[in-house]
Amino acid sequence: MTPPLVTLTTDFGTRDSYVAQMKGAMLKLQPSLKIVDLSHEIPPQDIEHAARFMAEAAPRFPDGTLHVVVVDPGVGTDRDILFAELDHQKFVCPDNGLLTLCHKLATRSMIRKLTSAEVFGDSSSTFHGRDIMGPAAVRWAEKNCIDDISIPVTTMQLLSLPVAEVGHQSCQGQIIGKDAFGNLMTNLTVEQLPTNRPESFQIEMEGKALTPTWVTTYAEAEPGSIVALVGSSGRVEIAMVNGNAAKRLELQSGTGITMSWQV
Question: Which pTM value belongs to this model?
Answer without folding.
Answer: 0.90
